[in-house]
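Reviewers of the previous submission asked for a worked example of the structure-prediction workflow described in the proposal, so we include one complete record here. The input consisted solely of the amino acid sequence. No template or homolog information was supplied to the procedure at any stage.
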Amino acid sequence: MAVVTTRSTPVIYRPTLACLFEQFKKLLEDIKFLDQQIKVMVKNHQACNELTQMEGVGPISALLLYATFGTGKAFKNSREFSAYIGLTPKQYSSGGKQNIVGISKHVANKRLRSVLIEGARAYIYRMKAVTTPKDRWLIAMIQRAGHGKAAVALANKNVRTAWAILTHGTCYDKSQDNELLTA
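From that input alone, the workflow returned the following structure tokens.
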């Protein structure tokens, strides 16, 4: 028979813990307020609102994408934008032989890349039914390469689609594959 003992917090720590708990509650309120502000900003901005229609792109990642992309004149195509963020694979090629390895984790825009990959992971985790061509592509990618690489591939595809949406002023259509947009 195990003896269960309950220990209470020593009296000397209680005022400090109460103060820390109040600070914690205040931080939660601040986070909730800032989340509401971000949602209002995205809702009122047409380009950011359009970016949130993509799979795995939420309000924070839409704002980060738009803030990073700017006018779009710095990037000549979607692959260049994706490489700037750090979502394209590294290549070591010599003598006609290509060796493609994973993404570089030490360069590019780490914050935006991590937000996009986490959004893609969340989308993969919550995906219940395959309804679009992009979902079919994603399921095939998961079966071929696994969840982690599929999340990076989805984030890469989202960035390239975002480039097309922002430079051409087009709307995102979930029912189409959008491969033509991501040239």
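The longest strand covers residues 97-103. We consider this example representative of the routine output the project will generate in years two and three.
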